[in-house]
TrEMBL record:
The lineage of its organism: Bacteria, Bacillati, Actinomycetota, Actinomycetes, Propionibacteriales. Gene3D superfamilies: STAS domain. It comes from the Bacteria. Residues 1-100 form the STAS domain. This is STAS domain-containing protein. CDD domains: STAS_anti-anti-sigma_factors.
Amino acid sequence: MDLHTDGPTLVLVGHFHGRSTDHVRSALRARLDAPEHEIVVDLTAVDSVDVPALRVLAFASHDALRTGHHVVLRGCGPAVLRMLHLTRLMRFVEVEQQAA
């Protein structure tokens, strides 16, 4: 999985699995220390995701709220949305609404 930043946006590309969670967790922590209050995680180019990866996003959302920040997931494709619903982690994250 590749990760790059675009301002307050973290852009993830490829397969977001447990092996890449440390890299994403570190990037999210760095964003929580930044002055921007909204952190966007762009998942548009994520091909697949597993439960440990989604937990990282859910915990980051929780930590963000405690520090006055806000994490939004952008570009969640069908595979990501399906996993969020199956794991019931959807209730812990905010998914940006896509234009119809």
